Amino acid sequence: MSVSTKPANEAAEVAERIRRDPVGFVRATFDETPVGKQAEILEALRDQREVYVRSCHDSGKSWTAARAVLWFLMAHPGDAIVLTTAPTWAQVEQILWREIGQAYARARVGLGGRLLTTRLDLGPKWFAIGLATDQPTNLQGFHASSILVVIDEADSVPGTIWTALDSVMTSANSKLLAIGNPLNPASEFKRRHDSAGPLATRIKIAADDVLALTDDGQHPYLLQRAWVEDKKLRWGEDSALYVGKVLAEWPDQGSDTLIPIAWLERAKGRAVPRGLRALGVDVARFGSARSVRTLLEGNWFVFSRAAHGEDTMQTAGRVLADIDAYAPVATGVDDTGVGGAVTDRLRQLDHYVTPINFGGAALDQNRFVNRGSEIYWLTRQAFEMDLIGFSMTDPDAVDELIAELNRPTYDTDERGRIRVNKYGLGRERSLSDEERVARSPDRADSFAIAYAVVRPSLGPIIERPRREPMNEFEAMLQRDAEFDSRVAAADWGVYDERIW
Questions:
Q1: With left for phi above 0 and alpha for psi between -120 and 50, is residue 346 left, alpha or beta?
Q2: Per residue in 29-39, pLDDT tens?
Q3: Contacts of 90 (CB under 8 A, 6+ apart)
Q4: Neighbours of 197 (CB within 10 A)
Q5: 389 and 299 in contact (C-beta within 8 Å)?
């Protein structure tokens, strides 16, 4: 009897040591040392039922979550399940499970089982699996004495998925690790984070926490100060992306924000119908500003390309190259100021261009103060309706675009017409030339122009989602369907100043 029970006793003792010391497990198994908040997360997961981590960019959160998955399985041999999920399948496969695969391969002793792309099988009721969030029922029906649920990029996971996962966490030893950048102040992640009880731990990883580790040149895979300084310049310290991805705080989105950050974030990688191509060009007005070209295919964002310090002839040359390469059905150019020179040059070369004057008269002058307000309102409507999809081939450009599209605010004038301030300022404040360049939403203007010139070919928006009123301007939204019909009925065969 002693012979038969000795191996089982030894295995139980090893599992118990692993359970008690997750940081030691990582050191011994992978020859790696969790640093900073990484060790705090692992130990909190050992001690608490729920761990909520709001984190800056590149904090090593996915690295930590991958080690937590393997630690949990090894700490509960024979009867343990780990479920991981994220907002998209690409995030499930390419982020967390890529980290799990790298850790599994790095183990100094074989962990056993069979590793697939998003599944690690160690036994019939001893496995980890990655699942997408598009089918909540796929996340139900898992039962084991020990269950760990890992929600990656938790801020973008809808409430229905959290509810489905609640039904899984019914066993005595159930644990939750929810981790992500705090960007959506209305997310279920924030609600649960803020209402977490005594069986939960909340951990914040701000940029300063990570920079304390990387400023000495160590840990090159973590956030670097150069990145933070670059985003401070490009996004602005008051932007939602900077607040979320650098300070690790949920941004305060006021009721006058034109396009909430949540609408923009959920457009990342969204599959949408493609259509006719349109090119939008924002022309730099000052030497340090940028000229930006944006290409759309229907509602699909293809690219946003910026160039610094070029004259109008160089910008016109780049636009010509894009026209030759992509054959857009319409090309819109910001015709205000120096942009008129680009329009004139392209017309000299027999290319038809739609001149856009943001300060010019709106098509619907009863609703909008100027054409820029009208164009940005159309852009807002597209994101509210989840019509836009962002290609993620250049994630830095997308993040910069999102930061700029999230900046504008809106109000009404004395006649009740919608007025958009693309710099995100109140009426009482003006900008110097230097401030205007620094806050200029070049990518956002270029995107809005491209969408404005392709929008008529997409047809009117017929159906609107039912939403709770957002603010005092909600009644205005009810007139959008009528406005869409008016826009679609315009004579778009003639693109000239009489329309714009």
A1: alpha
A2: 999 999 889 99
A3: 269
A4: 7
A5: yes
Find all residues with CB under 8 Å of 254, minimum gap 6, and list them.
Answer: 409
* pLDDT for the residue numbered 459: 64
Identify any residues that bridge with 147 across adjacent strands, giving them in sequence order: 81, 174
The pTM score is: 0.77
Residue 320 tokens read as 């010509």
Does the domain spanning 2-225 belong to CATH 3.40.120.10? no
Q: Dig out the tokens for 332 from the structure.
A: 């819109």
Can you spell out the DSSP letters for 86-113? ESSHHHIIIIIHHHHHHHHHH-SS---S
CA distances from 123 to 17, 107, 168, 189, 303 (A): 21, 19, 19, 32, 46
**The token pair that represents 220 in the structure block:** 């090159």
Closest Cα partner for 446 from 280, 259, 278? 280
Domain range 261-489, CATH architecture: 2-Layer Sandwich (3.30)
Classify residue 408 by its DSSP letter. -
Please give the residue that has the higher pLDDT: either 68 or 233: 68
**Domain ranges within the chain, ordered by starting residue:** 2-225, 261-489
**What average pLDDT does the chain have?**
86
The token duo for 336 is: 């205000």
Quick check: 92 and 84 in contact, CB under 8 A? Answer: yes
The Cα 235–Cα 81 span in angstroms is: 41
Nearest-CA neighbor of 60 among 91, 86, 34?
34
The answer to whether the CB of 79 falls within 8 A of the CB of 153 is no
Let me know: does 251 contact 261? Beta carbons within 8 Å: yes
Give Cβ neighbours of residue 8 (< 8 Å, ≥ 6 apart): none
Sorted by sequence, the CB contacts under 8 Å of residue 411 that are 6+ apart come out as 256, 419, 421, 427
- Parallel, antiparallel, or unpaired for β 277-282 and 290-297? antiparallel
